[in-house]
Amino acid sequence: xxxxxxxxxxxxxxxxxxxxxxxxxxxxxxxxxxxxxxxxxxxxxxxxxxxxxxxxxxxxxxxxxxxxxxxxxxxxxxxxxxxxxxxxxxxxxxxxxxxxxxxxxxxxxxxx
Amino acid sequence: xxxxxxxxxxxxxxxxxxxxxxxxxxxxxxxxxxxxxxxxxxxxxxxxxxxxxxxxxxxxxxxxxxxxxxxxxxxxxxxxxxxxxxxxxxxxxxxxxxxxxxxxxxxxxxxxxx
Lengths: 112, 114
Prior knowledge:
The complex is a heterodimer. By secondary structure, chain A is mainly beta. In chain A, 0% of the residues lie in helices and 55% in strands. In chain A, strands 2, 4, 5, 6, 9, 10 and 11 form a 7-stranded mixed β-sheet that branches. In chain A, strands 1-3-8-7 form a 4-stranded antiparallel β-sheet, with no helix packed on it. Chain A is globular, with a radius of gyration of 13 Å. By secondary structure, chain B is mostly beta strands. Chain B is 0% helix and 57% strand. Chain B is built from no helices and 11 strands. In chain B, the strands form 2 sheets. In chain B, strands 2, 4, 5, 9, 10 and 11 form a 6-stranded mixed β-sheet that branches. Chain B has a 5-stranded antiparallel β-sheet with strand order 1-3-8-7-6, with no helix packed on it. The radius of gyration of chain B is 14 Å and the shape is elongated. The model of chain B has no long low-confidence stretch (mean pLDDT 94). The A-B interface holds A 4, 33, 42-43, 45, 48, 56, 91, 93, 98-106 and B 32, 34, 36, 41-46, 49, 87, 91, 100-102, 104-107.
């Protein structure tokens, strides 16, 4: 099993630019989660999907953040426009029936 | 609101020196308590799920235990390769006032010196 796949692994962009992070969950898993990790706040849930439907987006910090899951094998997290305070590591995780989650390697985002 | 507090924030051990990490939690109806290991530059790696008080699970030098208020991750005779950040998370039942989302603690950074 390839595990959860995320791309890109590293992203450096300038303030105001659009950033799109991508995730491919483990095949057969029916729930997908987007997290953000920083030293100050630890691991925070941004949004999660169940069977491709967004269930809880209360962790999305602002309207600048949006997420989609057009099918069971792909999800995107978009930040538009990006700001320096968005710099963090973004993780995608997937699970079957909301039990143990399996995380991807993360995308390290730096906004200058 | 579900909460998780991990202690200590950081722990340094000598190789072979056993110790325990603590995870205190409050949750409305515990569905599961999860332990993860995270190495620098990587995503959290799943270790254990505990479902009810009194349950224990083991994997190599690690043993996780659970009570109604806290969980311990016991590390027996650790080796340098056990150095990592260990994360604890809880999941509740929505119909009992909890949340099916995982709520993570800030983690314990373990360093094992040779």
